Amino acid sequence: MLRAENLTKRYRQGSVTVTALEGFSYEFPPGPTAVVGPSGSGKTTLLNLLAGFDLPTEGAVELGGARLDRLGEDERAGVRLEQAGFVFQSWNLLPTLTALENVAFPLLLAGVRPAERRDRALALLDQVGLADRAHHRPNQLSGGEQQRVAIARALALEPAVLFADEPTGNLDSAAGHRVLDLLLEHAVGERRLVLVTHDLEIAARAERVLHLRDGRLVKIEEPAAV
Amino acid sequence: MVGRNLTARFTRSLFTWLGIAVATASMVLFLSFGEGLRQALVSEMGNFGPQIRVVAEGTDVFSPPQPELPPEMLEQIRAMAPELGIRKIIPSVMLVRGGFDPATSFFFHGLPEGADPRDFYPPAKAAAGRLDPHPDGAVVGAKKAELSKLTLGKPLRLSREVTVPVVGILEPASGLVDSLIFVPLKTLQQVLGTKNYGVFMILLDPDAKVEEVAQKLEAAIPGIDAQSTNEALKFAERSLRIGDLIRFGISLVALVVGGLLVANTVMMSVYERTREFGVMRAIGARRRFIFGLVLSEALFLALAGGLAGVLAGVLGSAAINAYTREAVGLALSAVTPRLALFSMAVALVLGLVAGLLPARGASRIPVTEALGRI
């Protein structure tokens, strides 16, 4: 379950109050949902709030049965670990760890034993076609490969929700399509995928598209209409 | 992960490790003198014949006593001897000639007639010549004879007017006695221009109680310190502790510098890895995980530096001892297990203190800020 109700976020910038998001309410159904909008429309703020990176000024967020807006930082981290996986635009792999260790990292946080961590991480790398790159460091991998490692890491604890923020933004077209295919492939059953993008072509592959403008949800579309 | 993070910034980690190692090694070396002196003192006292040492009030264990005890005082003690169970009284004076370097210093010990080095160091044996310096000779400790190239018959000048020949050389004894020169008491008094004594060494009957005799002597004769071996050790221990504190204070400067190095390294590392910590927090790492990770890095550096420092201290101490054994026949530095453990503990506390602030900072970076998602 991923639900937002009347989500509002205001920042203070010097003496000015900026409203980054206002009154966003939506219950994300299973499957892929794209969030689109121009720069400054509130996409990143929305994802920050849905993932519990930040707290709303007003409103409520429910992820996996937990009210994130009522939890402290550590509790929200715990909910994220259990319920969510993340794929960022700039991959954000841990640079000192190998691909295998990066994928195993959430398993380490979850207290999975070393042997099992290794087996599960290897299987995940295999799923994203990178078993042969398991012992490479991020700086030895291409952008597309790093993003696939990030997807494997996001899937490590079989999360209920996958958050992807411009996951193809730094990739060439071929690598971007492969990453998108992988994400959509895993957004099946009860799993939700929240795909933040400014690229309408990518958004069109989601089952539904939320349009943000000036911090407000202005339109919800089915892909055929995009 | 700790190892990976440290090796990822290898040069910086290496220099920090070296900094802690040097700081710890300097502390180990400074404090090893106290430990070495303690051990040497216990060993010397164990070999020391007289049970009580009477000196003028205020004389400390480490300085040669000045000739401040008048002959009447000797008579007073002699009069009390049968009652107190005193077997033998050896009045003596001491004279130190020379400079800072023990190899060029001369420690003269005046012996009255009827006494020889065995009264002070029962195992003493003559390697050449005789043990008794009387009537007008000098018996030289093995190390002193070797360093100053003294052989039987060679003249030894005590002052402009007084020169005595070497009449005996002692066997090596691995102690202070190796560096002493025994000469007749009267000769040394003549050199010092006094009829007084610096110290009365007192040997007791087997059934006499040392502390009790010492107390009675002090009560009967004002202006003296009658120090039993135990008391002397206790007094020496007090002095050594003060010395330890001073040395620890000095080495603290190096330690603080070492601590600042760790703090700087860890802080720099935290600053550079802000995004990494953000990613970890985004994935689900709790604050205490980040805190533990950063603190472990500081502790690991401190532990590795501390171990290397103790090892370097042991090597340095061995080098010092090689020199002091050669110079004075004594090992003056010792890295005891308690010193090694203490130094390790100090290094770890250093790492802990230096790592706390960066660790706290790293664990409190907001995810959105760390990921640049504002």
Brief summary of the model shown:
With 226 residues, chain A is an alpha/beta fold. Helices cover 33% and strands 29% of the residues of chain A.
Secondary structure layout:
The complex is a heterodimer of chains A (226) and B (374).
Chain A: E1 2-13, E2 16-28, E3 31-36, H1 43-50, E4 58-63, E5 66-67, H2 73-83, E6 84-87, H3 99-109, H4 114-127, H5 143-155, E7 161-165, H6 173-186, E8 192-197, H7 200-203, E9 208-213, E10 216-221
Helix pairs in contact in A: 3-4, 3-5, 4-5, 5-6
Chain B: H1 2-8, H2 10-47, E1 52-56, H3 71-84, E2 86-92, E3 94-97, E4 106-111, E5 126-129, E6 138-140, H4 142-147, E7 155-157, E8 163-170, E9 180-184, H5 185-192, E10 199-204, H6 210-220, E11 224-228, H7 229-272, H8 274-283, H9 287-328, H10 337-363, H11 367-370
Parallel strand pairs in B: 4-9, 6-8
Antiparallel strand pairs in B: 1-10, 1-11, 2-10, 3-4, 5-8, 6-9, 7-8
- State the total count of DSSP E strands of chain A: 10
Main sheet strand line-up of chain A:
6-7-8-3-9-10
By DSSP (H or I, 4+ residues per run), the number of helices of chain A equals 7
Helix-strand sequence of chain A: EEEHEEHEHHHEHEHEE
Strand-pairing-aware structural class of chain B: alpha+beta
Name the average pLDDT of chain A. Answer: 92
List the chains of the largest interface with their residue counts: A-B, 28 and 23 residues
Distance linking N and C termini of chain A: 26 Å
User: End-to-end span of chain B in angstroms?
Assistant: 28 Å
Describe the main β-sheet of chain A briefly.
Answer: 6 strands, mixed
Seen as an oligomer or otherwise, the chain set is: heterodimer
The backbone outline of chain A, from C-alpha atoms, is: globular
Strand content of chain A: 25-35%
The class by helix and strand makeup of chain A works out as alpha/beta
Low-confidence residue ranges of chain B: none
Q: What integer value in Å does the Rg of chain B equal? A: 29 Å
SSE run of chain B: HHEHEEEEEHEEEHEHEHHHHH
Total number of helical segments of chain B? 11
**Helix content percent band of chain A:** 25-40%
